[in-house]
Amino acid sequence: MHWSAPLLAVAGRFVVFLFLWWLLTGGRTDAWLFGAGSAAAAAVLPLLVEGPAATPARSALLPTLLRLPLLVPLFLWESLKGGVDVSLLALRPRMPLAPALLDYPLRLSPGPAPVLLASLVSLMPGTLAVIDGDRLRVHVLDATRSYDDDLARLERRVAQVFGIKLNGAPS
User: Fold this and answer.
1) Strand arrangement of the beta sheet that strand 135-140 belongs to
2) If we measure between CA atoms, which residue out of 142, 151, 157 comes closest to residue 171?
3) Is there a contact between 94 and 149 (Cβ–Cβ < 8 Å)?
4) Distances from the Cα of 118 to the Cαs of 13, 60, 129, 154, in angstroms?
5) Are 165 and 159 in contact (CB under 8 A)?
6) pTM, 2 dp
7) What is the pLDDT of residues 117-137, one digit of tens each?
8) Which residues, in sequence order, are CB contacts of 23 under 8 Å at separation 6+?
């Protein structure tokens, strides 16, 4: 194993945690000493818990955060579509709702990636998602339409952000 992979992961986490500290304290200089120590401890903690071999460079926090903007266009588009769908349902006199719980088999490995996926799905109008083992349970307002393609596209984008490969056959 190369020594730079864990170092890159720790450095990335340190920068992110220090930035968050700066935001939370409003940039107060008298809080920097404590903030830097806390950020360093939080950055090194995963190494102590999992060991250096469990921190590959591709899963380092900094590269993941740099790829996070890749989700923005897809999320905005899906939010716009969902908002239009919910608006049209609300404007109809009879509101033809067909709520249902859908099960989507997750191809993401357990960890932060499926949590982000469930969070993004839940932020879209008319949906609510939870992780249930190896599947995503999604509450939708209109079960007459298919959501599989949208969920698969979002899952692929989340995998891309985390720099990981999806398990199983592509959908």
Assistant:
1) 100-105, 135-140, 127-132
2) 151
3) no
4) 23, 21, 5, 10
5) yes
6) 0.60
7) 998 888 777 789 999 999 999
8) none
